[in-house]
Each structure stands twice: as C-alpha cells, then as structure tokens.
Amino acid sequence: MTSTQSVPAATPADDTADGGGVLRRAGAVVHAGSGAARQWWRDAVIYQVYPRSFADANGDGIGDIPGVTARLDHLETLGVDAVWLSPFYRSPQNDAGYDVADYRDVDPLFGTLADFDELLAGAHARGIRVIVDLVPNHTSDQHAWFQEALATAPGSPERARYMFRDGRGADGSQEPNNWQSIFGGPAWTRVTEPDGTPGQWYLHLFDSTQPDLDWTNPEVRSEFENVLRFWLDRGVDGFRVDVAHGMIKAEGLPDWDGHVEMVAGSADDAAGESTGDVDPGAPEDGSTGAGNQGPMFDQDGVHEIYRAWHQVLAEYDGDRCLVAEAWVEPLSRLARYVRPDEMHQAFNFSFLTTGWDAAALRTVIEASYRANDEVGAPTTWVLSNHDVVRHPSRLGSADPSLKVNGVFATDPQPDEELGLRRARAASLLMLGLPGSAYLFQGEELGLPEHTSLPNDVRQDPGHFRTGGAEAGRDGCRVPLPWAADAPGFGFGPAGEPWLPQPASFARYAADVQYGVPGSTFETYRAALALRKAEGLGQGALAWLDAWADSPDVVALRNQDVVVLANLGTEPVLLPRGAEVLLSSGPVLTDRSADPQTRVPADTTVWLRA
Ligand code: NOJ
Ligand code: CA
Prior knowledge:
By secondary structure, the protein is an alpha/beta fold.
C-alpha cells in the first residue's frame, strides 16, 4: 500500500492535514478520571494463572505452584500488577479444582503450603500482588462436610450445610424441582441413606460431585469467613469469588423452565438454546427470571454475604480486594455487587461477549462506566479466561460474539491469522481503557484456542454431562508453550503435558517472542509500561468527535493518549504528524517531511494527543 491512495471513507477527510486537531476534539466525557488511584486494584492489570497449565516444575505433566514461582520473571517482565491463581486446593479435580475438598490446604498435585508461601513471597518481592480463588457456592463431594452429611440422617445439622430435599412423587423418586445443571443434566442427585434405602436429593448447580452449600446456614457463613482469614493471614491480597451470583436460591426453590449456561446467559425456552441477546445497557428492571436471572441466580440475599466479607477484609491492611465472578446482566444489576460496602470489582463479561463491532463496543464501554461510576467502583475489562474460547479464536470466527463455549475439531475452524490480528487490536483497545484489566495466561503470547482437540482427551465435566453436545473448556486450558524447540514446548522438564498442544504453539512460544520488536509479548509489555507511565488506568475517557458514530472505528481519548481501533475493512488515514506511540500491528507511514500514517484494518494504535 502506498500513500498515493485516496482518503478512505472512515477518515474525516477535511481534518487529515490539520496537524492533529482531529485527535484533540473529544466529545462529552464518558468517564471522569479518578486522579491517582486510591487503591491499587482500581487500575491494576491482573494476570490469571491457571496453575495446571502454566508451568510444570516436577515433570508430571501438570503445572504446579513451584512452576509458577520459577516463571515469576516472565510476569515481572510483562509488567503486571497482580496475579490471580485459579484453585490449587485439595480436590479430586473433577472440575479442575473448582471442586474443593479442603479450603485450607494445597493439593499435592500442585505442591504444598510451603510452596505457596514461597510463591507469595517471591511475587511480593517483585511488587506483584496475589489473589486466590474462593469457591463458596459448592464444595467437592469429598469435602469432610459432605461425607458427614451422607453419613447422617435427613434433618441432621450435617445435612443442613447443603441443599438436601425430599424428592417429589409418592416415593420421592422425582427431583425436588426441575432445575438443570449448568454442565447439563438435572441439578439434583439422589443419595442412598446410611440404612441402604433410596433417600433425599441434593442440589448441584454444576457437576454432581459439586454439592451446593446452604448459605442461609450461619455455620456455612462463619466457616467461609474463617477461610478468608486463613488466606489473609498468610498474606494474600484478595479473592476472586466463584459463582458469586449463585449462593442464595429463591425461597421455596421454585421450578424454572430456563436453562442457565455459565457463559451465554440463559434462554427461557425449554430447549436451553441461548438467545445471547441481553442488552448490557438495558435499564435495571429489578425482576428475576429475566436475562440470566433464574431463581438460582442473582438473588438479593447474596449481597448480605459480601457486606460481611467486606468487613473481614477491612480488618486487614493493604487494600485487600474481592472480585466477583457473576454472570449477571444488565450491567446495572452487576454493579450491585460492587457497591461501596460489598465487593471491589466484578468481571465485565458483557465486554467479553460483545464481539468485533465498533458501535456495540462503544455501547458496552459506555454502559460499563455508567453502571460502575454510579457506585464508585472501577470498571474491569476482560477478554479471555479459563471458561471461554480464547479471544484470538473467537475473533477469527465467522461470528465473534458466538462460540464462547468451546470448539470441536469438526466445527468450522477459526481464521488464525485474522484472529490474532484482531485479538492484538482488541487487547490494545482494552488496555487503553481506564479501570482494571484482566489477562488470561497465554494471551500475552497471542495464544489461540486449541480448536482441534480429539474428544477422547477432553476432561471438562461440561463435555461429558452434555453427552458430548458441548466441546467444553479444555481448548483454552492447554499447557503454555515456553520454548519452541523443547519437548512439550518447555512446559515442564519432562513428561507429556496433561492436554496435547497443537504444533502451531511453536510459533507462539515465549522464547521466540522475548525481545522481538512487534511480537505479541513485546506489544503487551510495551502497552503495560505505557499504560502505567501515562496513568491510563486512572484516566478520563471521551470519544473523539470525528469517529463518535463511526461503524468502523472506536476512537477515544484517555489522558494524553488517543486510542484508535480500526475494526473496518479499509485503512484509516491519520492526521499529518500524528505520533504513533504503539500499534497492535504494522502501520504504514509515508516518508514525506510531514508524514501521514495509515492504520490498516483490524489494528489499534495509541497516539500522542
Ligand atoms: C466458574 C469457574 O470459573 C468454572 O471454571 C467452574 O467450572 C464453575 N465456576 C464452577 O465452580
Ligand atoms: Ca507438576
């Protein structure tokens, strides 16, 4: 492409030679800056470590805590403020550790408590904070409490910690209600009583090995407050709270014909097909049963729990924080979790599910600030995690807002090159926004989903409980490539990684990206450094007038930086003299004395404004 091309439609033509005025004309402020961040988490970049897939120190093919400690340099070089560790507690691993058998110990698979302390000390020594995962909605069926519940009779205090109910029908042989498990199949399992007779049923919103606790029971509440203290005393900086919207169920456990999916929300048709069309900016209607709010989710009673936890954290120094994993829409409803006396952050899944559409992104970004500013909480931004298809693969798919739930080898495969280009552009847009951003391990390498995993290696209970109808989440959990030429791409010293890695991972290995200008790793690293230097996490946001209604371009001003993402198919011509600080891919600048730059399709630039 040369600079002799005509001015593309996406560019405000009469402004191309005005020395950058177009970059300074911003409209109404969408979000007011917060000045210096009051607490570290308000503008933090937080990196999710999924321990079993990060790095394997002992060679058994499964990542572990010493593996994370050994790779802290990677995180320090990248420049993240904190890590969030997915569960490493004692667990039979039926849901990769989200089935906890002992909340106060490390599973031998991952190491020991001493290994954890070493990791914490090592991270803190590098100025990296550590958030751990708390799974309060359910325990493992191997937890001592559940074993006690099984060994005692209906009506016992041991059973009262869980959601045991008698079955329906004369002989109690039908489920107590019609709820479906999020992983497929009924949400109830019948037990055999200690005397050998068919007995009560227990509720499990997820796998049958993940019985739901009864959060109306004060014993459950005090136990978890003590679990919080156990880890706070050890020095953790916060907790990511699993299924934060699920702990209280509607009184009487009423039937509900919807089927909740963790990611896509719910449909109110019995077939369970998600409509996925919840408007993130829709006004709060206060009802349950709309959107993804069945009688098991987003009940008002959950907030009391978080108020109590807020107080527990406040007893400790250092601005410890709680982040809610709550698949709740609209955003105004999600914001209730981050009111001043509750949690501190909530994952912004409305942003994650928006896809690659300029107008839709502006809408969700505005709605996010509107909702969070109302309660004084920072907005978070997240594009990938261990439950969704990695964003390079989503954005390389025919419909980027779909298929968050896993891809089969037999499905249409994403366009890898397009997906990576868009993913880098999406990440630079995200990192240019005020608030706090979450990165999922491997996204700094541009890692795609493994979209052709053979079904016989899959491990996600969601795959099995749907009878294989859903691929499940294994494809985003494939062990990381550290070294292009090493066996298992350097994931561990020996042994087959617990899930096979695709050959393409050689291209993404960390060691072929370190120090290479323009590599995804170096682009993220530069973005995090600039974000910090320019104070973007605490900045104010306004759309640039010139592109405020553009179907192709998202352009915003944050502090002294303009972030411009070109989602269209034509290049965007920047005003002469615009200074490009960073770009997600190659941009074309002519060699004239007064150079002019073109931003190609699917590219984001950060400009000096
Ligand atoms: C959300 C977690 O992120 C997911 O991985 C897990 O399967 C469910 N909660 C159940 O704990
Ligand atoms: Ca290991």
